[in-house]
Amino acid sequence: MFLTFIMLFQAYAWPTYGLDPAHTSLQGGRGALWSGNVVEKWVYLGGTSYYVPPAVAGDADGDGVMEVFAVNNDMKGHLVNGVTGAVEWTHTTGDIVHAGGLIADVDADGLTDVILVSEDGTVRCLRGTDGTEKWRHTTASTWYHSHPVAYQLDGDAELEVVVGGMAGAVYCIRGSNGADQWTLPFSALGSPAVADVDNDGLPEVVIGVQNGTVYCLTGATGATEWTYALGSNLICSPAIAKLDADAALEVVIGGYDSTIVCLDGITGAAEWTYKANSWIGYATPAIADLDGDSQREVVVNAQSGTVYCFNGSNGSVEWTYSLGGSSRDSDPSIADIDGDGVLEVILMRDDGPIHVLNGPNGSLEWTRAGGGYHSVIIADIDGDDCLELVHTDNGTPKRLVALDDAGNMSGCDAVGAGEKGGQDAMQFRAAGPVLYLFLPGQAEIGLSLYDASGRFVQVIYDGILGQGEYSFYPEPGARGVYIAALRYKGGMRTLKFVR
């Protein structure tokens, strides 16, 4: 199954931790960010204490403009305008906030919500328009470092919100009212990931818990499908993707004993393992085809600051890079941020510097000073069809920072990676109920369908296609207007059609 996120659809948003519920951290589109061409677009100074988790980005209030949502140890969630950096609203909790936010329509009312989790054991669903509270879920669990994920786990209209607590359990919460759907009675600092890992057509929740066990749970009920005993403390969150030729997806996660493991999605058996040079902290792996060989790579950041790039199918090391210092919490983020058709890997060291690496070989492309703590997210926050970077800076003063290209370019993704333009260009169009695609060369694509409100409907195709013409016949059921989203390396296209 193509790993797309079941949230309100918006091109080049970053609405949840790891970009999507599977935590691939691979953004489509292109940017114009290269050494000497990067400037601060805006700086938000409203947070008065430390920023711990990364921000998220999406159209939270439905006005067609993307917002950035960041949480701070001042006990607040801050929603700021993606174009200007001006604050739109804040919401004060009852405790500090170490878990990242989430932007999604969790109750299926057609309006976007924001999920905010605080250390006092409270999960809040807020209105994206003004930050007022819709519902709250309160438990005995405290010390929430687990970032929430939202997904349609049981087939009804609403999304479920899944989050782990340190002193108690992993909770699956109904998006409509905040009631429990199921719980897993183990403490978890890591964050859950969601995907159909066993190819049975139904989503599973995968999470590592404090006792060192990875759990794969039936999404609708929380029943255990398989477990894997890593044998060490787990605070890393899993990433999920198809890494080999079998029917299942793979799950990649790292532990305190420095072991990185790739698990089969059907059985939970280890497909490969690797012993890193230090323990794996909160940093979640990222997954993408970095070198264009139609084989996905896995990027993992160890606490020592060593970045590993593995061949996803067999675990062999393709390259390593040293950040030059501790990096316990920085998740790799991946995108073509300079528009050259090659993916970059972006990370931060614990004391702040941003490192931008060449995806195929791991060489350093550029660095930028900062006082950050976690990860850099990548999104088109100003709607100019070019990617921007957003990061936190815990220097003095505490800052939320958006980085843009110096020329404020637009239309960076007008021609996607691997496209030529003219007669040999990729073509994607609708002819009545049929979707037509022409590929000028072999490409790995994912084609998904959304309804007119942006809610996910179905996966149409996921895989590698050769050069040629293809016709697809979506069967969404009800008649109406739909959005088809075509994702490919370095880009994405969308179109509307009537069924």
Largest sheet: 5 strands, mixed
Q: What structural category characterises the helix and strand content?
A: mainly beta
Overall geometric form: globular
What is the gyration radius calculated from CA atoms? 21 Å
Question: Which ranges are low-confidence, i.e. pLDDT below 50, for 5 or more consecutive residues?
Answer: 1-9, 415-423
Oligomer: single chain
Mean pLDDT: 88
Tell me the helix content. Answer: under 10%
> What amount of the residues lies in strands?
35-45%
Q: How is the topology of this model organized?
A:
Elements: E1 26-30, E2 38-44, E3 56-58, E4 67-72, E5 76-81, E6 87-92, E7 102-104, E8 113-118, E9 122-127, E10 133-138, E11 149-151, E12 160-164, E13 170-174, E14 180-184, E15 193-195, E16 204-208, E17 213-218, E18 224-229, E19 239-241, E20 250-254, E21 259-264, E22 270-275, E23 286-288, E24 297-301, E25 306-311, E26 317-322, E27 333-336, E28 344-348, E29 354-358, E30 364-368, E31 377-379, E32 388-393, E33 399-405, E34 427-431, E35 434-439, E36 443-451, E37 456-465, E38 468-472, E39 481-488, E40 491-498
Structure commentary:
With 499 residues, this protein is mainly beta. Helix content is 0%, strand content 44%. The chain is built from no helices and 40 strands. It has strands spanning 26-30, 38-44, 56-58, 67-72, 76-81, 87-92, 102-104, 113-118, 122-127, 133-138, 149-151, 160-164, 170-174, 180-184, 193-195, 204-208, 213-218, 224-229, 239-241, 250-254, 259-264, 270-275, 286-288, 297-301, 306-311, 317-322, 333-336, 344-348, 354-358, 364-368, 377-379, 388-393, 399-405, 427-431, 434-439, 443-451, 456-465, 468-472, 481-488, 491-498. The strands form ten sheets. The protein has a five-stranded mixed beta sheet with strand order 1-27-28-29-30, with no helix packed on it. It has a four-stranded antiparallel beta sheet with strand order 2-33-32-31, with no helix packed on it. A hairpin with an 8-residue loop joins β3 (56-58) and β4.
